[in-house]
Amino acid sequence: MTDNKDDKTLSVTGKKTLTLKPSGVSQGTVRQDIGRGRTKAVVVETRKRRLTRPEDEKASAPVPQARPAEPAPAAPRPAAPAAPRVHQPSAPQQRPPQPQQPVRQERPRGAVLHDLSAGEMEARRRALVEAQAREVEETKQRAIDEARRKAEAEEAARRAAEDAARRAEEVKEEGTQAQEVEAPAPAAVPVRPSEVRPAAPRPAAPSAPVFGRSRKEEEEEEERGAARGPARGKVVAPAPAKVPARPKGEEDRRRGKLTVTTADVDEEGAPSRGRSLASMRRRQEKFRRSQMQEPREKIVREVVLPETITIQELSQRMSERAVDVIKYLMKEGQMMKPGDVIDADLAEIIATEFGHTVKRVSESDVEEGIFDVADEEGELLPRPPVVTIMGHVDHGKTSLLDAIRNANVVAGEAGGITQHIGAYQVEQNGQKITFIDTPGHAAFTAMRARGAQATDIAILVVAADDSVMPQTIESINHAKAAGVPIIVAINKIDKPTANPQKVRTELLQHEVFVESMGGEVLDVEVSAKNGTNLDKLLEAILLQAEILDLKANPNRTAEGTVIEAELDRGRGAVATVLVQKGTLRPGQIIVAGDQWGRVRALVNDKGDHVKEAGPAMPVEVLGLSGTPAAGDKFAVVENEARAREISEYRLRLARDKAAARQSGSRGSLEQMMSQLQTSGMKEFPLVIKGDVQGSIEAIAGALDKLGTEEVRARIVHSAVGGVTESDISLAEASNAAIIGFNVRANTQARQAAERGGIEIRYYNIIYDLVDDVKAAMSGLLSPERRETFLGNAEILEVFNITKVGKVAGCRVTEGKVERGAGVRLVRDNVVIHEGKLKTLKRFKDEVSEVPVGQECGMAFENYEDIRAGDVIECFRVEHVTRTL
Ligand SMILES: Nc1nc2c(ncn2[C@@H]2O[C@H](COP(=O)(O)OP(=O)(O)OP(=O)(O)O)[C@@H](O)[C@H]2O)c(=O)[nH]1
Predict the structure, then answer these.
(1) What is the pLDDT of residues 147-171, one digit of tens each?
(2) Does the annotation list 440 as a binding residue?
(3) Cα 527 to averaged position of ligand 1 atoms, centre (Å)
(4) pLDDT at residue 359 above 90?
(5) Are residues 725 and 712 in the same domain?
(6) Where mainly found (predicted)?
(7) Model pLDDT, residue 65
(8) Model confidence band, residue 194 (pLDDT cutoffs 50, 70, 90)
(9) For atom 9 of ligand 1, which residue has the closest CA?
(10) Which of 392, 398, 459, 526 to mutate to test ligand 1, by most ligand atoms within 8 A of the CB atom?
């Protein structure tokens, strides 16, 4: 209890005193009698009633410009509750702050307008403005609806006749078109009222009324939706327009097919905020045309059709929507997706149905303009030479490749690591030379057999301490068959026994005339071991390149050859390619063999990522779908569809080739001869392998005599020994036939021949061979002798059995051995004897055949010179009459 001197104490009753305080709070003290003449002072506080509203205090900002508040004659609609009237003190800022006092809110009952504070007035005014805006909006809406209804009625009347005709057809389709297809359907496309209604401040342009719907219409539509049930689940809003000409059932069915979202966007794809009638009409007309496919309004295109095409690609070529093509196919009972591949016949039907003409192109046309595209002379610029190193085993090919690379790495970029990517580039006197990193003529010819001529110059390595060996000769023949110039590297000159002059003389016998012997072939004495004369060799290469005048156009799309490819665990398919024309860049789409892909990255021989690879540059390409084969050609194509088309074409080609192999070999003598006659070839290439040099020379002489002015045999390669894999690839690359005279092909060669569809023709009598060639050349083909290999058995031991003679204890190593079939005794790939079996036994029983892996006893009819280690080849012979 306080006793303040300033307090004014009033006597209210005789007993009570009220003390007043000067502030807004009145305080008084009432004295109360508590008996026995004693009183007690009770302090009484009377406060002035005060209401505050937090937002009023906060909202010190002026009220936005608006119409002045008008006294509302009546209460606003119940939907818009009036703002609560709030009593505000007229001058709250003059009151001292009362932080301890709780803020109380109270709405005085029965307050009249002139009693309201400024805040209350403002709130009421706002409510009124809002209510009026709503009313204005609804009035506008009603006017818009009316305009739309009129327009729709006109539109509907116009279309009534067309719809009637279409309705009959669609009723027929009913049930088959159960799938939802995303398509705009103007009559059925609903418009979201919320989206089409113009915003309140935006006046509706009278010349371009916008669509919208009244609540009544929405309700009607909802009723219809309820009747239709959940089938309309995808329709986001009911249809705005009632088309009287279209029956309700049909309308519903049409809507059921739609996902409708297109209605909510304008033609540019932006959300539609009120589409004009004209725009809607345009869309309707467009859709109707696409549905009716009126030929009179179509642009007729000539659609180029390959053997197969995807629906997407066909649609693009016709400039039609894929969805329309799919709808058409659905109508025909075929459910397809845009990515599905269809054949040219079906594509032609579709294109014709859509009113276009077609141009069927042959399969190979898909590659037209992609590979072997010629350049104008003026576009060509000098390019580095591409070099392959060949030679006999152990003459130092790998050592020489390594020596050149290492010398260059050391000289060029100190510490640089050159990675093996199948090829590398070195620099000599500022000029680049590309080396293919796979030594040997086999790889060279294998690539050539696939149609790729990647090499410009062949380096023939011959060891100076050795002489010209069988693979040296093979290399010479392979290079000559490819028309590639040779540079001789006489290696190992550091050796005391080295005799380079002997090598030069020996080369003469194989028609390799080196410069020092009066010829034109460049030769360099080198030592791969010591690095002697490597620069001279590089200079010789540059000189030869200059003579060849190697050029390419770097400013075009890239083309080239795959050198090697592998599947890398981390990087996926990695192909080392040699760019031969143009410039390859990341991001481009390439086709390589039957693989394709977008170039993800290019990595050079130093392991660096590069932005481009020009002519004669080897690079690793990342991003292919799979691994192409060495020798496959690659090229950049314009798009994925084209890439897919080419890769599919190539896969089919490979399948056809495999199928063709089943029916006959392309490398048979007869085929070669018939090809010769039809193509007007002047030379007939042959690979001849014989048991002795004498028989090869005899065959070559006999064939030479057969030559006429029109045609003559050309021996691409001949050598003593069995037929090897390298012979097969040479025959494949040179389109040559293989003749084995008293020799056989080893297993690898036989398998390669099967893979490549090359027939190896075996003879043991020269006159038979010559007769065959003669008959073929004169057009009188003898019956084709088709030999089928059955199996091989190796002789493990030879037993001499009394009264029976020599019996071979064998194991079947390949295929099977059959009694009654032909057999050959082969020693070191040379045929020793050909005849028939006298006996074929398993243990003590005579059997008709013995499969691979089993042991058996065999004896020849009238022949006993058999040895352990010999191979018995079993075969069957058929004679097929030739028909041309
Ligand atoms: N003294 C000497 N030895 C050499 C020279 N070049 C290579 N050699 C040796 O000859 C042997 C064969 O060398 P390679 O480089 O493997 O020969 P290659 O022709 O690649 O052999 P293959 O790969 O088997 O065909 C190795 O022992 C080398 O060290 C040389 O210039 N001088």
Answers:
(1) 788 778 777 777 776 666 666 566 5
(2) yes
(3) 10
(4) no
(5) yes
(6) cytoplasm
(7) 40
(8) very low
(9) 396
(10) 398
Q: Work out which ligand 1 atom sits closest to the CA atom of 495.
A: 1
Q: Does 4 count as an annotated binding residue? A: no
Q: How far is CA 529 from CA 123, 202, 534, in A?
A: 102, 90, 11
Q: Is 528 a pocket residue for ligand 1 (Cβ < 6 Å)?
A: yes
Nearest protein Cα to ligand 1, atom 21: 394
Query: What distance in angstroms lies between residue 465's CA and the mean position of ligand 1's atoms?
Result: 12
- Structure token pair of residue 15: 């007993």
817 three-class SS: strand
- Does 21 belong to an annotated binding site? no
**308 and 437 together in one domain:** no
Question: Does residue 757 have a known ligand-binding role?
Answer: no
Residues 400 and 513 in one domain: yes
- How many A from CA of 541 to the centre of ligand 1? 21
In-domain check, residue 11: no
Q: Within this chain, do residues 398 and 515 fall inside the same structural domain, yes or no?
A: yes
Please give the residue range of the domain that contains residue 336.
Answer: 302-360
Ligand 1 in reach of 392 Cβ (< 6 A): no
Q: Which ligand 1 atom lies nearest to the CA of residue 401?
A: 15
- Residue 493 is assigned to a ligand binding site: yes
CB atoms within 10 A of CB 820: 10
242 known member of a binding site: no
Distance CA 179, CA 380 (A): 57
H/E run at residue 818: strand 805-818
Centre of ligand 1 from the C-alpha of residue 400, in Å: 8
Q: 546 and 420 in one domain?
A: yes
139, pLDDT greater than 80:
no
Q: What value does the mean pLDDT take over residues 424-442? A: 85
* Burial class of residue 805 (count of CB atoms within 10 Å of its CB; 0-12, 13-18, 19+): middle
Segment 368-387, tens digit of pLDDT: 667 767 777 788 899 999 99
Name which residue leads in pLDDT, 436 or 180: 436
Q: Is 492 in the pocket of ligand 1 (CB under 6 A)?
A: yes
* CATH code of the domain containing 800: 2.40.30.10
Instruction: Report the distance separating Cα 805 and Cα 835, nearest Å.
Output: 16
Do residues 584 and 552 touch, judged by C-beta distance below 8 A?
A: no
Distance in Å, CA 487 to ligand 1 centroid = 18
As a whole number, mean pLDDT of residues 529-553 equals 93
Amino acid at 630: A
Q: Does position 57 have pLDDT exceeding 50, yes or no? A: no
Query: 516 and 533 share a domain?
Result: yes
Q: Which residue has the higher pLDDT, 231 or 273?
A: 273
Nearest partner of 267 among 280, 285, 254, judged by Cα: 280
Q: Which residues contact 788 (CB under 8 A, 6 or more apart)?
A: 875, 876, 877, 878
597 marked ligand binding residue = no
Q: Are residues 396 and 536 in the same domain?
A: yes
Residue 350 forms part of a structural domain: yes
Q: Number of structural domains, the chain?
A: 4
Alpha-carbon span 751 to 855, nearest angstrom: 24
ipTM of the complex: 0.98
Is any ligand 1 atom within 6 A of the Cβ of residue 785? no
Atom of ligand 1 nearest to the CA of 528: 31
Report d(CA 273, CA 782) in Å as an integer: 85
Residue 392 is labelled as binding a ligand: yes
**Centre of ligand 1 from the C-alpha of residue 583, in Å:** 36
Q: Which two tokens mark 606?
A: 């130093």
The model carries a pTM of 0.50
Tokens at 509, concatenated: 């016998």
Nearest atom in ligand 1 to 393's CA: 25
Tell me how crowded residue 217 is: count the other CB atoms within 10 A of its CB.
19
Identify the DSSP state of 584: B
Phi and psi dihedrals of 711, rounded to 5?
Answer: -145, 145
Q: What mean pLDDT is reported for the chain?
A: 72
Q: How confident is the model at residue 583 (pLDDT cuts 50, 70, 90)?
A: very high
pLDDT in tens, 201-210: 443 333 333 3
Same domain, 392 and 534: yes
